[in-house]
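User: I'm putting together a small comparison set for a docking exercise, and I want a reference complex before I start. The sequence is below, and the ligand is pyridoxal-5'-phosphate. Could you produce the 3D structure with the ligand included, as structure tokens?
Assistant: Of course. I'll restate your input first, then give the structure tokens for the complex.
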Amino acid sequence: MGHLGESKRAVAVRVWVNGQQVDPEAPSIAALDHGVTVGDGVFETCKIVNGVPFALTRHAKRLDRSMAGLGLPAADHGVIEAGIRSVLAGEPIALGRLRYTVTAGAGPLGSDRGDSPLTYLVTAAPQEPNPDTAKLVVVPWTRNEHGATTGLKTTSYAENVVALAFAKERGAVEALFANTAGNLCECTGSNVFVVIDGEILTPDLASGPLAGVTRDLVIDWCRQEGLTVRAEPLPMSILDRAAEVFITSSTKDVLAVHAVDDWLVTAPGPLTARAAEIFARRSLEHLDP
Ligand SMILES: Cc1ncc(COP(=O)(O)O)c(C=O)c1O
């Protein structure tokens, strides 16, 4: 049964590589692609609702920043858009994720880079609805807020794979990282917010998190609706005082946190519910904010 379920899921994934839609289970990338050998690439993940991707322009701009941060040439957005059109054609995906990746292309086996053309991959797949609330587990590894790729959405995500497995083994939905200074940073694929004394706080970008598209929209939209939201360095000990905790991402939207390790927190608390409502309403009004 498990096997049948797996192959059904694979069929539901639509994959486009360098100009054409391909069989998701057949080989389509060169073994020497630098994205494969050393994780030399960048990617974006957008939410799909009723066949329509959300916030494409913000994702495209972040891809440009990630490419520049890796020292890669600018991506051709016309190519990416053709791939997006291709994977979104046909039966609309009711709830899903669009992921596109640009890698350095074929390269040497080591960390030197070749001068091959960039590789473009675009995929779309349905996703399960999120749980109503989530548990976080603080992992014993730190995010490096001073790294060469800090703040870039690169395909070198093995650290996140290890951390997420650690959290899931402990019944959590996400893993929470501190940075090297012992401050709150982010999760493997989500940003984190806490509520203290009626104010919504989130780590500033100097603390090392990715500049999440959802994070930016939650900050802007909540401020526009009169809530106080501040981005600043936050000690990990702030979790002991937080009245509410929530995480944000393109695939999770605003997700209330009911536990951090063994510490329980009200979920959704009033400000989390308000942020979730604001985000849900505004994102329906503006598909490309
Ligand atoms: C490390 C990391 N932090 C935060 C996020 C949330 O960013 P966004 O809201 O743009 O999805 C992501 C996205 O997957 C991520 O990979």
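The chain is about 30% helix and 30% strand. Residues 45, 153, 186, 189-191, 209-210, 212-215, 248-250 surround pyridoxal-5'-phosphate (CB under 6 Å).
User: Thanks, that's exactly what I needed.
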